[in-house]
Amino acid sequence: MPNKILVVDDEPDVLNLTKLVLEGARLSVITASNGKEALMKAEADMPDLILLDIVLPGKSGLEVCKILKSQPQTRHIPVVMFTVLNRDVDRMLSVEAGADDFLPKPLKPEDLLLFVKRVKAHLAKIQSSQQL
Amino acid sequence: MMGKPETKSPSSDLTGSLCSYEISAYPSKRGLSVFLKDITERRKMEEALRISEARYRTLFENMPDGLYQSTPDGRLLMVNQVLVETLGYGSKEELLNVDIARDLYVNPDERKTFISRLNEVGKVHNAELVLRRKDGKPVTVIENAHIVRDDKGKVLFYEGTLTDITDRKEMEMELKKYSERLEGMVEERTKELYASEERLRRIIESSPDTIAVIAPDGKITECNQAALTLLKLPAKEELIGRTFLNFVAQKDHKLTLENVAALQSQGHARNFELTLLSKDGREVLAVIDAALLQAKSDSPGSVVAIVKDITQRKMAEAELKKAMAIREQLILNITHELRTPLVSIAGYLSYIALGYMGPVPEAIKGGLEVVRRNTDRLVNLTNDLLDVQRIQAGKIQLKLEPLDFREILDQCIKEIAPFVYGKRQTIKMKVQETPLRIQGDRIKLSQVVTNILSNASKFTSEEGEITIQAEEDADAIKVQISDTGIGIREKELKRVFEPFAVIYKPNYAKGTGLGLSVTKGLVEAHGGRIWAESPGEGKGATFIFILPKEARREGADLAK
User: Fold this and answer.
1) Residue B559's pLDDT is what?
2) For labelling alongside B370, which of B23, B299, B430, B447 has CA 20 to 30 A away?
3) Pairing of strands A101-104, A79-83
4) Which residue of A has its CA nearest to B399?
5) Is any Cβ of chain B less than 8 angstroms from the Cβ of A57?
6) To 10 degrees, the CA torsion angle through B122, B127, B129, B131?
C-alpha cells in the first residue's frame, strides 16, 4: 500500500500541482485547503506525512501543527511545514510549533525534484523507525 | 724805632721749664725801657684753643653729613666739604658766597617757613626738604638745625646738618614705582581672571545641554539655565540644594544608583538613559554623561553631569521603528503574494517541461523557455526583496562554517560560465595556490560572488575579459573582480550599492536593481567591506571586497 500524504494549502493550483507531482512519484495524496479541514482529515485518514502550508485562512499552519502535536492520536505523524517564505524566522517558528521539518515551496524545476526526494526521504525514515 | 711789643720764641725760666715772654721796648730819656711780660699762661690757653679748634674742624670736616652755620639774613658762615659736594659747588668759598634763599631753595619762600619754624621751637628735627644744587638738579635732604644765641639771647647764627637722602629717595621712588607696577599687574590679572571666569560662566549658562554639579550626598549644588528649561522650573532655587533622585522617575532609581556606583569606582558613567520628571509631571527622556569633578573647591566625590534631552529623538526613533515595521510587513506581504502564484507558475512549468503532462513539441519548448526565464527573474526579484528587507532590518542570519574561499570562486564560476562563454568572454584567475581559509556562510558568500560575476559579465561586451584576483593577509582575504565593461562614473561609485539606484544602464542589462545592495549587506554581515573602483565610463570596473578570516559572530546563526 502506497504511503499516504496529507497536503494542506489554500491555493488550489498549488494543491493540485503538489498532488500531481507526488502522485507521479507513486504516492497517495489527500488534500485540505484550511486548518479545520486539515485537523479533521489528519484524524480521520491517519496520513503517513503531513505537508502543511504556514499561511492559511483561519487557523495558521503553525497553530494547526501545535494542535496536531498536542493530540495523542496525531502526535506521531511527521509534520513538514511548507511555505513560500524561506525565512529564518519561519524555520524557527516551525521548530517551536513542533514541526519535524521545513520545506520551501519549489520555485524552480530543480527544486521540484529535490522536493520529491526530500518527501521520500522522510517517509523512508518513518518506515525504518516503524520496523524497529 | 717803633714801640710795639714783640713776642719772642719761648726761652727757659729759672726752673728750666719753657716760658713765653712778651717783650716791649720803648725809647726813654735814659736810653731804652725794656719790659718783659710773662705770657706763658696766655700761650697755653691759646694753644689749647688752637687744638680744640683743630679737633672741632676735623670733626666738622669728617662728618658724613653736610654741616653749616648760617645767618638769619641768608648767608652761610661756615660749611664743610660734604655740604659743598652735596650741593655740587666747586669750593667752600663759592658756596659761602651764595644767597641761601635764592640759590639753595627750589622755592625761596620756603626758607621763611624754615626760619619761622626754627624761631618757634628753637630747632628743626628731621625735616625733609628739597634743595637746589648748583647745576639746578634737586637734592633731597634731611635737615636738623638749631639756633645759636649769645648770653643775652640774641640770635648769633643757625647751625645745622643736612643729610643727602637723594639716593635713598630715588630708591624709595623705584620701590614705589615697582610696587605700583606690581599692584597694576595684580589688578590686571585679577580683571583677566574675572573676565575669563565670567566667560566660562557664560559658556556654561549658554550651553543647550544641562550641566549640573551633584555633591556626594546626592544634592544638586550647581546648575545652568538649560537645567531649568529641561525640567520646566522657574528658578534655580527649585533645583539647587535638592536631591537629584527627586527628579528621576521611580522606575529609574535603581539604574541611577547603579550608575552612581560605577561613577565612583571608574570616575565616569557614559551615555546612560534616564527618565526624568519635569515640574509639570511629564517624563523627560535624557541621556546623561557624568564624571567625577576634579576641582579642589568641591568635596571629593562631587560629580559633574551633562544631561541631554532626547525625548524628541526617542519619539522620532519610535516613529521610525514603527514605519520600518510597517515597511517590513508590507515587503513580506508583497513578497508572499508574489510568490504564491509563482509557485504555481514555476511548478506547472517545470512539470510540463519535464514531460509529465505528455510530450512537449519542439516549437512549444522554445516558448516555455521564455516563460521559464521570466519566471526566474520574478523569483529572483522576490528573493532579493526578502534579502534587502532582512539586511536593512538587521535580521540577516549567517551560518558560519570554515571554508576555502577558492572553492566558492570555482563553484560560482561554474554557475556563471554559461553566460560568460555565451558572450565569448574570458575569465582570468589570479588566485593563490594554497587554501584561502575563512569563516563564513557558504551560501551567502556564493551569492556575493555570483552577483558580482554576473554583473561583470552583464556589463561587459562580447569577447571582454573578467579577472578574478584573491589573496590573503594575516586577518583577512581580499577579492577583486575586474571587467573590461562599461565602467562606472565616479559620482556613481557609491550609489551603485543603493537599492533601486537609478543609474544609467544599457537596456540589455536586466536586473532587479537590488543585487549590489544585497551583496553589500551580505559582505557587511560578515564584518567585511566592499567598494567599487572605475577609471571612468567605458573603462571597466573593479569590485573589491575584504572579508575578515574570523567573521563577526554578531548576527551569525549559532543554532545551526
Assistant:
1) 33
2) B447
3) parallel
4) A88
5) no
6) 50
Does residue B395 belong to the interface with chain A, where contact is any CB pair within 8 Å?
A: yes
Together in a domain, B436 and B507: yes
> Given strand B220-223, what is the order of strands in its sheet?
B220-223, B210-214, B303-309, B283-292, B268-277
Instruction: Tell me the CATH number at A94.
Output: 3.40.50.2300
Give yes or no: residues B425 and B335 share one domain.
no
Q: Is B250 helix (H, G, I), strand (E, B) or coil?
A: helix
Domain for residue B147, yes or no? Answer: yes
B67 assigned to some structural domain:
yes
Within this chain, do residues B132 and B100 fall inside the same structural domain, yes or no? yes
Minimal-distance CA residue of chain B relative to A21: B351
Q: Can you list the alpha helix ranges (DSSP code H) found in B207-217?
A: none
What is the C-alpha separation between A111 and A104, in angstroms, rounded? 9
Our CA-based measurement puts residue A92 at a distance from the nearest CA of chain B, in whole angstroms, of 10
Give the domain range for residue B444: 397-548
The string of pLDDT tens digits covering residues B338-367 is 888 888 888 888 888 888 888 999 888 888
CATH code for position B277: 3.30.450.20
pLDDT of residue B552: 58
CA angle, residues B163, B164, B167, in degrees to nearest 5? 140
Query: Quick check: is B187 in a domain?
Result: no
Structural domain span for residue A29: 4-131
pTM: 0.51
Residues B255, B274: contact at Cβ < 8 Å?
A: yes
Radius of gyration of chain A (CA): 13
Query: Nearest CB to A14: which of B343, B372, B379?
Result: B343
Task: Determine contact, residues B276/B284, Cβ cutoff 8 Å.
Answer: yes
CB A104 within 8 A of CB B383: no
**Are the beta carbons of B557 and A88 separated by less than 8 Å?**
yes
What is the ipTM score, two decimals?
Answer: 0.78
Q: What is the distance of C-alpha B15 from the center of its chain?
A: 107
Closest CA to B215 of B287, B264, B279: B264
Are residues B30 and B72 located together in one domain of the fold?
A: no
Spatial neighbors of A22 by CB under 8 A, at least 6 apart, are A5, A7, A29, A116, A119
pLDDT tens-place string over residues B151-202? 888 888 999 999 998 888 889 889 999 999 999 999 999 999 999 999 999 9
What's the CATH code of the domain at B460? Answer: 3.30.565.10
Q: Which of A85, A93, A106 is nearest to A66 (CA)?
A: A93
CA B434 → CA A104, B7, B198, B470, distances in Å?
Answer: 37, 145, 69, 11
> What gap in Å lies between CA B560 and CA B550, rounded to an integer?
17
Q: Which three cell numbers stand for residue B164?
A: 643727602
B408 with B505, same domain?
yes
- Is B447 part of a structural domain of the chain? yes
- How much is the average pLDDT of B4-13? 61
B340 interfaces chain A, CB cutoff of 8 Å: yes
Q: Which chain B residues touch A107 with a CB distance below 8 Å?
A: 339, 342-343, 346, 379
Task: Give yes or no for A124 touching B (CB within 8 A).
Answer: no
How big is chain B, counted in residues?
560
Tally of domains in chain B:
5
Reported as a pLDDT band with limits 50, 70 and 90, residue B480 is very high
What backbone torsions phi and psi does residue B46 show, to the nearest 5 degrees?
-60, -40
Over residues B395-409, mean pLDDT: 88
